[in-house]
Amino acid sequence: MVDNIQIVDALKAVLTDLTVEQISEKLEAPKSSDLGDVAFPTFTLAKIMHKAPQQIAADIVATIDQSGFEKVVATGPYINFFLDKEATSNKVLKTVFDLESAYGDNLDGQGTKITIDMSSPNIAKPMSMGHLRSTVIGNALANITAKNGYEPVKINHLGDWGTQFGKLIYAYKTWGSEQEVKSDPIATLLKYYVEFHEKAKEDESLNDEGRAWFKKLEDGDREAHELWQWFRAESLKEFSEIYDRLDIDFDSFNGEAFYNDKMEKVIDILEEKNLLVASQGAQIVDLSDINQNLTPAMIKRSDGATLYMTRDLAAAIYRKEKYNFAKSLYVVGGEQREHFVQMKAVLSLMGFEWANDIEHIAFGLITFNGKKMSTRKGDVVLLKDVLDDAHELALKQIQEKNPSLDNKDLVAEQVGAGAVVFHDLMNDRTNNFDFNLEEVVRFEGDTGPYVQYTNARAKSILRKSSIQLTSEQLNLSDAQTWDIITILNNFPSTIQRAWQQREASIIAKYSLNLSRAFNKYYANSKILVEDNQLNARLVLVKSVSIVLTECLRLLGVKAPEEM
Ligand code: ARG
Fold first, then answer.
1. Is 134's C-beta closer than 6 angstroms to any atom of ligand 1?
2. Which has the closest alpha carbon to 213: 265, 283, 178, 165?
3. Is the CB of 122 under 6 A from ligand 1?
4. Is 128 touching ligand 1 by the criterion CB < 6 Å?
5. What pLDDT band is residue 346 in, cutting at 50, 70 and 90?
6. Arginyl tRNA synthetase N-terminal domain: from which residue to which, for each copy (predicted)?
7. Which three-class secondary structure state does DSSP give residue 250?
């Protein structure tokens, strides 16, 4: 889809039966640029209009208002629009120059709130690459919602409650040591957890012990509660190091435990609506009426303990009451798809119409050099190590390319972390992908550092010139700059599409496109020559840098001035 208001308006005037949306979704980029800037295919109109597509195209071109275009021509079944290059260049460059980082702002959201459940790692376990995905996708979506006029609320639904804490408390009390935990909290707690599972394989009764300790915790037992609090605080400290490093913050850290006193209400409504059914001692909600293939939602276990689902139901209701969200997003891996389908189904049965505003923003699996990760077996790739390695690789390249750079270490951190984040975001989020650090941190190719480098290059050109830039006479019309101008022109529609599709990758791919077009221009033309278009060319360079910086900001990637 290519958006261009001018084209949609011209078409709308002759195709009165179609809506603006119907017209704009048909617009596409022509197969090659000598066919024009935007194409409108007429195939789908043939049925309605009872005419051959070629004829429709010819008829429309004969009647359409061509003013403001270089030309409008029919090529077989397509109507091809050639934009007036000078007018477009003037308009686009002036808009970016005047608006700067506000270019592309969309006011549609009107300040309504979008809650974003994101990151949500589990206490006493290391943050995995999967949680990293949730963190960076959630953060980018939050920035994108804000750019579209909404107010994002970033919620870290910490996994700080559940039977695993019973297991952990049992393990700690039976073979753990305070000293050991203090020296390296998460790694030690993970070790106990892994050991627990090994031992439980030989001796089934351990699971009962774990369950009993969790029951104690839920019933408010003091010793259990104190241990839990300690594990939680230590874990949060380590998570915060990573959040600080990625410069990502949250509006709420209300994790699962926060809903302990809010679950009675859920149970009450379920009972009132006669939705709870006893099944082998447990309490469930049957969902087969909604969808035959849906397994029932477990609300209470046979020992009365509540579950992940129960806490999520309480959280969903709490969020609606507290934030009155327009949409409630859950950025969670695709393997939890059924959980969210069930959750929405239960909320619908409870009579909450807003259940339809809940969206599971699923994402694919990350593998690391071909290996899958699992915390249960203890073979995890630690995020901290990934960021450290990325930093090293970035530093090496900076030392080669720009040995005299002042703040190498800071820039290496921005490039290393940025590379990891960008790579995560440039793939369609539901794709599975493998992570190879060497490729990710390269300064060339489809990488974050490439976009950062392009932006730094644009900035350095601007530093070399001392002329005062103005927004007058920005009419560039050569083929080299035209590519860049059309991409800049598409930025506002890209912002909207990224939100409509909940896809940060649309912005990452856009930034790569813009970088490629700019580097091609940079390689083939002299920008800094003193002629009457110098100002226009520098405003173009500045516009590229404004838009690239904004793309990187939206993605949660830093934009170093020099690298
Ligand atoms: N802590 C969970 C996990 O690591 C993710 C929580 C996602 N959010 C939610 N509201 N269920 O699997």
1. no
2. 165
3. yes
4. no
5. very high
6. 5-83
7. coil
